[in-house]
Amino acid sequence: MSSQAVGGSSFFSGFTRLSKGLAAVLVGGYALIQIFPPAVTYLALIPARTIPFAWNLITAGYVEQSVFGVVVGTVGLLFIGKLLEPIWGSREFFKFIIVVNFLTSVCIFITAIALYYITRQENYLYTPLSGFHGVLSGFLVGIKQIVPDQELALFSVLKIKAKWVPSLLLFLAIATSFFTENAASYLPTLIFGTYTSWIYLRYLQRKPETSLKGDPSEEFAFWTFFPEFLRPVIDPIASVFDRMLCGKSETSSQTKGYTLAAEPLPGSDPIEASRRRERGARALEERLAAERAAGGGTEDLKRRDAVENV
């Protein structure tokens, strides 16, 4: 029993207070719509009712309509929060969730209205849309930014670098959506969650150590979500974001990490980006070392029990 307790504590410990609080909100939201089903019409995003029920743009992201959704959302929030929140800080972590959730809901609302006018199918207006998976996909973009070259083991078999995980998720989601209607319903949220989080981290997130916004490093450019041979096609698309969010006069200079005087912007050069990744990698290594130490303690207890039994 003691050895199991040691192993379990290393895996299920370290969850932040904010992550646990938000996980309780996800569980509570699911419980509410199970006990009182009409609540989904007031909390989920229903495009035809978003005006005047504009709060749906905020509440929809925290309401899961299935057991699968609430389990994935809760587990993902707790475990990814252990990595991101200590690096970003609780305030920035919470701000990231609020902003990405809201922007994702706005994009879904606009897309649903556009699809209705194109197809005249009313299901685009009256289908309740909700779930935390948009923010979860955004978390993966955060990991891509912090530890892009960290190898992650998927299903204990496939190893893939963290920078490719968001792209792999979207590829699998798109491929699956051709075969199941349920998977297709998740696709818009995953897509908008991924790319709105990139916009926030690329252009809007303020770094307390430099008082600057965004991450204009080449390693976090838009084209890094795609194979490199597509870069000539992707770069013109990315330039649209630069013009909108950086300004026409500063686009060519700031995205490369330089001012108009050809001097490096503080915090925007490769050195600052490298420091940020080092902090992320160090935090990840510390957690892995703690888990390995706890695992080693488990093995010692097992060997001790074996000797005593003999």
From TrEMBL:
One of its GO terms (cellular component) is membrane. It is a multi-pass membrane protein. It is found in: Membrane. Residues 272-290, 299-310 have a biased composition (Basic and acidic residues). Gene3D superfamilies: Rhomboid-like. InterPro entries: Rhomboid-like_sf, TMEM115/Pdh1/Rbl19. The chain crosses the membrane at residues 21-46, 66-84, 96-118, 124-143, 164-180. Residues 256-310 are annotated as: Disordered. Keywords: Membrane, Transmembrane, Transmembrane helix. SUPFAM superfamilies: Rhomboid-like. Coiled coil: none annotated. The keyword Transcription regulation does not apply. Pfam families: DUF1751. GO terms for biological process: retrograde vesicle-mediated transport, Golgi to endoplasmic reticulum. The keyword Signal does not apply. This is Rhomboid-like protein 19. It comes from Nelumbo nucifera.
